[in-house]
Amino acid sequence: MQMSSKNKMDLNELRKAMEQELSSKRYLHTLGVSYTAACLAMAHGADMDSAMTAGLLHDCAKPLKGEEQIALCEKNRLEITEVERINPSALLHAKVGAYLAQTRYKVTDADILNAIRYHTTGRPKMSRLEKILYIADYIEPGRKHVADLETIRQMAYRDLDATMAKILENTLAYLKTTDGQIDHMTEETYQYYKHS
Ligand code: DGI
Ligand code: FE
Ligand code: FE
Q1: Tens of pLDDT along the chain (196 residues)?
Q2: Angle at CA 187, nearest 5°, toward 192 and 193?
Q3: How much distance in Å is there from the Cα of 104 to the middle of ligand 3?
Q4: Are 148 and 170 in contact (CB under 8 A)?
Q5: Relative to the CA of 62, which ligand 1 atom is closest?
Q6: How far is CA 16 from each of CA 27, 107, 159, 177, rounded to the nearest angstrom?
Q7: Choosing a second label site near 170 at 20 to 30 A (CA), which of 3, 16, 77, 86?
Q8: What is the CA 143 to chain-centroid distance, rounded?
């Protein structure tokens, strides 16, 4: 693939890179997120190319095993929280993904990098693009069915904040039925959006 080491890659190059790097299942999810993020950007007046870039790259660290993600963070002095260390595959891939988007895929836009970084837990006061990626990841057409998904899909095109609140409420309820430890950021994000 032709690619300058400095210049950012265009959407088609990113798509091809993800097709090579990801499992076919993860690649299909990635395309779904990218196009869903584009639709949400159209509906909410956000930048479509940024939404598609964030969508294509959001899970780029998923092929790395948990211990590889931890090693990469340690080597590059990225801070790892206790809960990320315990759940690297679920939680750390977002932070590592943002790092790879910047270093390997030459993304310089801070909003895109933050959207990738916070796509799993969210955070209070998210930008429009951050909310679009978080929501697109949850509602893309290939996502396996979860409670209230039809309602959430419709809400997403009308009210990003209310949709954040609903997804977070359902995610926290789901996590409480598993032995997955809740990241305080997920809880804080819910507290921030729950009155939307
Ligand atoms: O990478 P994906 O599977 O496409 O989706 P994702 O990055 O949004 O989430 C990965 C998983 O992380 C998903 O099953 C929900 C879960 N998750 C979200 N918040 C938390 C969490 N898992 C734990 N342990 N703690 C959290 O706070
Ligand atoms: Fe993810
Ligand atoms: Fe995802």
Answers
A1: 555 456 778 999 999 999 999 999 999 999 999 999 999 999 999 999 999 999 999 999 999 999 999 999 999 999 999 999 999 999 999 999 999 999 999 999 999 999 999 999 999 999 999 999 999 999 999 999 999 999 999 999 999 999 999 999 999 999 999 988 999 999 999 999 999 8
A2: 20
A3: 19
A4: yes
A5: 1
A6: 10, 16, 32, 37
A7: 86
A8: 14
Question: Whose alpha carbon is nearest atom 1 of ligand 1?
Answer: 59
Out of 120, 146, 176, 190, give the residue to mutate to test ligand 1, the one with the largest number of ligand atoms within 8 Å of its CB: 120
Does 84 contact ligand 1 (Cβ within 6 A)? Answer: no
What is the DSSP code string of 127-144? -HHHHHHHHHHHHSTTSP
Pocket lining: 69 vs ligand 1, CB cutoff 6 Å = no
